[in-house]
Write a sequence for this structure.
């Protein structure tokens, strides 16, 4: 996955706007040593490749990492960096924040994906674009590392009609349904998806949409609706969305949907990770 140098440079400058004042005052910046990162929690590692790049930007002499996706046990060391003390201290917390936050997302995602695939191997976990501003590059990487797939990375990527679009469509939902063949022809290289509740989903599938996103339909009422929609068009893609979380994801997967779209994987309690430094003898 590509993450621009400019994004990583912004992370550095957030924590080091100019000088590491403590290291400068103590006069230790030129001393050499090593920093190693380790975890107190089990989890799925994420962000070491970006942390390695950050340390090289700062002037590290050597870096060793475990790759993102590594399953960590408590006590495992997953990154070591050698260089001047000023370099180690400038990268210390910037990289630790990446590890703690995004390894937590990868770990949570892996847990949901494993639960969903245990119930329905053909159901995919899809992460929405409702994430905190500024976190998109590493957030996307973390959820990919955990085994999910981006539902939408932005408005330019897919055609997905919401009720908020229908509110401006001349003639409303009835006109939209009548116009679906023409609208599909206008975006012939893209699939045409619509979000709908249970009452409108059948009409949209009968009209020929490529996919239907079912909004806030309870998991226990979804299986029959999925059978009905697939009976109309066996090739239609059915996505469950709205209120999907760690507790009910497996039940949604059991309904026979092709995917579940969730926002909950963008938020997780950070893993307990830390770093220790040792000066060269």
């Amino acid at each position: 996955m590509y993450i621009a140098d400019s994004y990583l440079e912004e992370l550095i400058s957030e924590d080091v706007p100019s000088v590491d004042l403590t290291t400068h005052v103590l006069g230790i910046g030129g001393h050499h040593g090593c920093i190693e990162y380790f975890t107190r929690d089990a989890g799925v590692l994420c962000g070491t490749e970006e942390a390695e790049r950050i340390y090289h930007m700062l002037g590290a002499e050597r870096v060793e990492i475990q790759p993102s996706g590594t399953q960590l046990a408590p006590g495992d060391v997953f990154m070591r960096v050698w260089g001047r003390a000023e370099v180690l201290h400038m990268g210390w917390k910037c990289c630790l924040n990446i590890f703690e936050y995004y390894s937590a997302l990868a770990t949570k995602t892996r847990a949901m994906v494993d639960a969903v695939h245990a119930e329905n191997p053909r159901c995919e976990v899809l992460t929405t674009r409702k994430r905190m501003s500024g976190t998109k590059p590493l957030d996307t990487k973390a959820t990919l590392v955990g085994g999910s797939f981006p539902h939408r990375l932005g408005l330019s990527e897919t055609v997905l009609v919401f009720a908020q679009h229908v509110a401006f469509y001349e003639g409303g939902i009835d006109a939209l349904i009548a116009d679906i063949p023409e609208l599909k022809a206008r975006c012939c290289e893209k699939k045409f998806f619509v979000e709908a509740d249970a009452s409108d989903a059948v009409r949209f599938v009968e009209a020929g949409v490529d996919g239907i996103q079912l909004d806030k339909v309870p998991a226990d009422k979804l299986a029959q609706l999925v059978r009905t929609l697939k009976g109309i068009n066996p090739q239609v893609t059915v996505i469950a969305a709205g209120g999907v979380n760690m507790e009910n994801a497996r039940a949604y997967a059991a309904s026979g949907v092709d995917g579940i779209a969730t926002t909950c994987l963008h938020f997780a309690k950070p893993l307990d990770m830390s770093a220790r430094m040792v000066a060269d003898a």
Summary: The longest helix spans residues 85-119. The longest strand covers residues 32-39. The chain has a mean pLDDT of 96. The chain has two domains: 5-111+269-279, 119-266.
